[in-house]
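[recover] target loaded
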């Protein structure tokens, strides 16, 4: 009996176990729970992916927004900081960390382009379950600011030393190539004249020539030549009012013992060419550049005119030349305002020397009636003595009641402004020294060269150095970009040229034919990536 019971007891579990697989495959209770579990897992996974995607997109938008703002700020031409540092500063301010950033900058005098790419990794919360632990947010952008219009003043030394070592011969092709290069921007589909070039040759004065003097007023002591005399205060301002007469430089030979070597050239050789777009005319001017005698160097006067031709005060003068067809009508409204974002102003200043002496006649000999009378038929001179009301006729060695040639009312009194055209200042003393009359002998001491001619920037050019530095400071303050070239110049010239340059990178110290490389480098900087519409 006990054995039977035991068999029933121990045999039942074994039967149950044999029936379980069959019952599991046949019965349906509990299947909904399994399905719900699977769906729940899928829903959590999909929701988690959505969360990761939202986090990714939020990060990407912030990264792109920050990059866009950064490149716009960095590309601004008014931005004085390093463009790459500006971009990095925007990312730091935005609180972004762990980003990878690459910045590329291209810039020239008239443009700046900043391009940047950034990446930022995001650690996923849910996608890592599916084998995607990291998402990378990309951002890219570029910004460019470009100036359309360029106004250039090219200042060229034509002093006597330019004849040495073929300097003038080396200068001519270099200057021509520069002009051709910068004017190339005017060859555009719309034929817009974007670049104007003024050439300012100088030695110890600047010959305004007939074109510039027709629109800038000069005092009327004489009309033999057209150079202006500038004073210290004139170098502390950028503009020249074309309606206010400039003091005309006296007409005289500038060195004792010279004859006809006038301080200011009397024709248009080496004259200023203002606001031109005419390549052939500018080339012709450059080809015609020459030195005359032992002419000295006044870099300050060249720079004075260079800045004046870029200053808005000159606009009425330019407008007058537009009206008579001398200047292209596209330049109407120039020189532009210094604040005009569409215009950049450039001076290219070149010398082979250093500031030296400059001359003018003393005030009392600049104009007004002199005691000299002249017979225009033969040039005979007479000297009037007011105390006796008589005339010493130089050719006849005699006092008379009328000047030589005056019996038929032919002789005329010579104004001081005209006197030095007929008698060199260095020759007056010798002209009178052989006269036998004691009065004339005494008078000749009043006409020694040193009494007539005033060396108004003494101390071997130090005054002119000061004026030049002041003028360059004014140019820098107005935002004018100054390139300078010391062409085989001595240390004094190198010093002031380096000072005038906008930066060390804008200063060139060159010898020989390397002057062509200097001008070509400046032109490339100005025209880099060419002006665009």
């Amino acid at each position: 009996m006990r054995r039977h019971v035991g068999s029933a007891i121990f045999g039942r579990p074994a039967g149950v176990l044999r029936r379980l697989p069959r019952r599991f495959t046949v019965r349906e209770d509990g299947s909904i729970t399994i399905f719900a579990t699977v769906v729940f897992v899928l829903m959590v996974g999909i929701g988690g992916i959505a969360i990761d995607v939202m986090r990714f997109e939020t990060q990407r938008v912030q990264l792109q927004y920050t990059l866009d703002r950064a490149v716009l700020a960095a590309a601004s031409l008014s931005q004085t900081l390093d463009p790459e540092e500006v971009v990095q500063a925007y990312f730091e301010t935005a609180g972004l960390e762990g980003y990878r950033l690459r910045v590329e900058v291209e810039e020239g005098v008239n443009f700046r382009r900043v391009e940047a790419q950034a990446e930022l990794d995001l650690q996923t919360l849910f996608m890592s379950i599916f084998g995607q632990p990291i998402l990378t947010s990309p951002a890219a952008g570029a910004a460019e600011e470009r100036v359309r219009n360029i106004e250039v003043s090219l200042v060229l030394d034509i002093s006597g030393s330019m004849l040495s070592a073929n300097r003038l011969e080396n200068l001519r092709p270099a200057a021509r190539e520069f002009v051709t290069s910068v004017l190339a921007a005017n060859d555009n589909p719309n034929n817009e004249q974007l670049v104007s070039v003024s050439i300012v040759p100088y030695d110890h004065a600047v010959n305004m020539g007939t074109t510039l003097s027709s629109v800038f007023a000069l005092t009327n002591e004489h009309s033999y030549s057209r150079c202006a005399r500038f004073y210290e205060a004139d170098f502390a301002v950028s503009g020249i009012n074309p309606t206010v007469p400039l003091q005309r430089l006296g007409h005289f030979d500038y060195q004792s013992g010279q004859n006809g070597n006038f301080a200011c050239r009397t024709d248009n050789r080496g004259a200023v060419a203002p606001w031109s777009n005419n390549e052939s005319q500018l080339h012709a001017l450059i080809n015609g550049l020459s030195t005359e005698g032992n002419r000295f160097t006044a870099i300050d006067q060249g720079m004075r005119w260079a800045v004046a031709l870029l200053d808005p005060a000159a606009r009425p003068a330019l407008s007058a030349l537009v009206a008579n067809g001398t200047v292209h009508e596209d330049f109407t409204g120039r020189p532009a305002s210094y604040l005009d974002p569409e215009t950049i102003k450039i001076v290219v200043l070149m010398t082979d020397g250093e500031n030296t002496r400059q001359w003018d006649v003393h005030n009392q000999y600049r104009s007004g009636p002199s005691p000299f009378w002249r017979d225009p038929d033969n040039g005979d001179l007479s000297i009037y003595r007011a105390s006796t009301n008589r005339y010493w006729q130089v050719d006849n060695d005699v006092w008379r009641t009328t000047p030589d040639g005056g019996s038929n009312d032919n002789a005329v009194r010579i104004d001081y402004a005209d006197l030095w055209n007929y008698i060199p200042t260095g020759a007056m003393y010798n002209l009178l020294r052989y006269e036998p009359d004691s009065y004339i002998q005494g008078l000749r001491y009043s006409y020694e060269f040193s009494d007539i001619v005033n060396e108004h920037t003494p101390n071997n050019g130090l005054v002119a150095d000061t004026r030049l530095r002041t003028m360059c400071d004014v140019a820098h303050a107005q935002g004018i970009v100054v390139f300078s070239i010391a062409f085989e110049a001595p240390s004094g010239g190198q010093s002031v040229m380096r000072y005038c340059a906008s930066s060390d990178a804008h200063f060139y110290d060159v010898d020989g034919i390397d002057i062509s490389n200097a001008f070509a480098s400046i032109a490339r900087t100005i025209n880099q990536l060419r002006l665009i519409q």
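[recover] notes: Residues 1-10, 529-533 have pLDDT under 50 and may be disordered.
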